[in-house]
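Quick one: structure tokens for this chain, please?
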Amino acid sequence: MSQGFVTVSHADGASLFEPGDQALRFYVVQSGKVAIIDRQRNQTLAVLHAGESFGEQALLAGGVRSAAAQAIGDTTCLEITAQGLRDLLAKESSLATPVLEALLLQLYMHNAMRA
């Protein structure tokens, strides 16, 4: 696996991050599920499955998590550092457009759900 990319297993109920944590990684669910939770409202915002990504704030310098991410069942995620993603996009420029389109769609959906 390339530097900046690591596969991590999380047990059921494990917290991947909490609100206020610094956003240092971008995640892709490889197996299992991840709940994105608004702790202030005690509300599940989304349940993500294999192939779905989250944590796009890692792309923004100084990003801070606004929600929590928690494993549902045994879950494996590919964790990508912000620098690892930048390096990949620099080497594989053909990936830049689809990755950015996916991130913009996620941000749009996130904002729509909070409205």
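The beta strands are 5-10, 15-17, 25-38, 43-48, 53-54, 68-81.
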